[in-house]
């Protein structure tokens, strides 16, 4: 991997799991890591771990991505502090059981996994010039198909289909960002099935603890760190990666027309 000394990296979902493991690793490699998380207690604990790894206390910001107002507040804080951000790791998200709507009127899984990161990326567009955007996706993208006309979730779908659709959106967003923002290296990746707090409310995290093939958070974070640290000429912007290798997602996730439709629908959804 390339050296990260002096680079500013913003990591969402940084208070536990893959986001925390990646933050610790990048801090050890010299990066100035900026932590973003939802839970104040876990965020404070993450600050201590990253400080121990990197030798300095990282800045940390609380933001709940089920509220787009929180994204706007976060961006105001980041803009005041940083003229340049070398990498944004859109890692926040999860799976939400039941049918509900956020205060912004969207299906919670698509908002927390895609729309909030999409909005964050757009609002930090100037700071990210010549930088990178890395989206945490999943092989679960093949379990659902994103419908750009139904980000509110009017058409009811099962929990895992909604999650699969949101992860497909992460891949499509990275691919379309590469086409529309050629000065930014964009990519998405599959971390594998990781032992973490993911799905804590529905017992998925308990299953990961007893599954022999489940990865540690450090193993799951490896490709994220690699995509941030590897020299740009060695990477394919817009690509989807697993275990540091470029792979192909399912057909829908590499459909440029669907990617363009999702981009435009997402812009309208977040108020652009």
Strand order of the largest sheet: 3-2-1-4-5-6-7-8
Helical segment tally? Answer: 8
Instruction: Show unreliable segments.
Output: 202-211
Determine the fraction of residues in helical runs and give it as a percent range: 40-55%
Radius of gyration: 17 Å
Label the structural class.
alpha/beta
Q: Summarize the biggest pleated sheet.
A: 8 strands, mixed
Q: What is the arithmetic mean of pLDDT? A: 93
What's the β-strand tally? Answer: 8
Q: How widely separated are the two ends?
A: 36 Å
Shape: globular
- SSE arrangement, N to C: EHEHEHEHEHEHHEEH
Strand content: 5-15%
Report on the structure:
With 272 residues, the chain is α/β, with parallel strands linked by helices. Helix content is 42%, strand content 13%. An 8-stranded mixed sheet has the order 3-2-1-4-5-6-7-8, sandwiched between helices. Helix 1 crosses helix 7. It is globular and about 50 Å long. The N and C termini lie far apart (36 Å).
């Amino acid at each position: 991997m390339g050296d990260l000394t002096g680079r500013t990296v913003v990591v969402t979902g940084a208070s536990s799991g893959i986001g925390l493991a990646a933050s610790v690793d990048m801090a050890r490699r010299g990066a100035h890591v900026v932590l973003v998380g939802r839970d104040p207690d876990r965020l404070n604990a993450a600050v201590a771990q990253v400080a121990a790894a990197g030798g300095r206390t990282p800045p940390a910001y609380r933001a709940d991505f089920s509220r787009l107002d929180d994204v706007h507040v976060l961006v105001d804080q980041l803009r005041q502090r940083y003229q340049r951000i070398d990498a944004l790791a859109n890692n926040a998200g999860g799976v939400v059981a039941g049918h509900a709507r956020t205060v912004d009127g969207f299906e919670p899984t698509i908002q927390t996994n895609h729309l909030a990161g999409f909005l964050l990326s757009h609002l930090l567009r100037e700071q990210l010039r010549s930088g990178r955007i890395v989206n945490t996706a999943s092989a679960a993208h093949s379990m659902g198909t994103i419908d750009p006309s139904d980000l509110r979730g009017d058409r009811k779908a099962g929990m895992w289909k909604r999650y699969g659709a949101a992860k497909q959106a992460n891949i499509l967003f990275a691919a379309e960002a590469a086409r529309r923002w050629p000065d930014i290296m964009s990519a998405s990746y599959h971390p594998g099935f990781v032992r973490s707090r993911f799905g804590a409310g529905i017992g998925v995290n308990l299953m990961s603890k007893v599954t022999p093939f489940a990865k540690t958070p450090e193993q799951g974070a490896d490709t994220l760190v690699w995509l941030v640290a590897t020299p740009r000429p060695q990477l394919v912007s817009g690509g989807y990666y697993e275990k540091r290798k470029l792979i192909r997602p399912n057909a829908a996730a590499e459909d440029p027309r669907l990617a363009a439709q999702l981009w435009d629908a997402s812009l309208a959804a977040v108020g652009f």
